[in-house]
Amino acid sequence: MTMVQPTFRRATPEDVGTLAEFVHFASEGFALYLWTQIAGPERDPWQIGRERLLRGTSDMSCRTAVIAEASGKPASGVIGYPLSDKPEPASSQIPEVLLPLHELRNKAPDTWYVQALAAYPEYRGRGHGSALLAEAETLAASVGKRSLSLVVSDTNTGARKLYERCGYREAAHCKMVKEQWVHPGTNWVLLRKDLSK
Question: By CB neighbour count within 10 A (0-12 exposed, 13-18 middle, 19+ buried), where does 182 fall?
Fold first, then answer.
């Protein structure tokens, strides 16, 4: 496949539909499962995802996202943000299914956290992932973060190969809580990269 150097831009509120799709891809359906639980039988789970990205009340926000374009259209994207320099206690309202992810983020204080990284299927394997991770490093450095972190499922071998090729190494893992989410994995895996190396 032809490797393409994408054009980057900051996401805007008009991108929330695209970003919701990227979050769905990156989370292997986990985000859609959560949005479905929030939506209940009366609402559209995709609308819940778009609203959350638009409001930015969660860690996922269009304000912390970068879109990579190809031929003037969104092709891939990354959402990231700086983690606090101290572990944060879990809220009593956090769903149990999210507790392992919270625990792993707490093991990566003072890092730039890559919340979601994904591309539309037709742009996969063309260098977008590596380019977006490099862009995340630039964003991290711009706010004084010297390390990056992310969480991936233990069975997502394609993503893990990309991250390891870009210098990320396993730092911890935690057993998944699935509830009714159907997924072949057993553990969430925390990966980290030190920018000083």
Answer: exposed
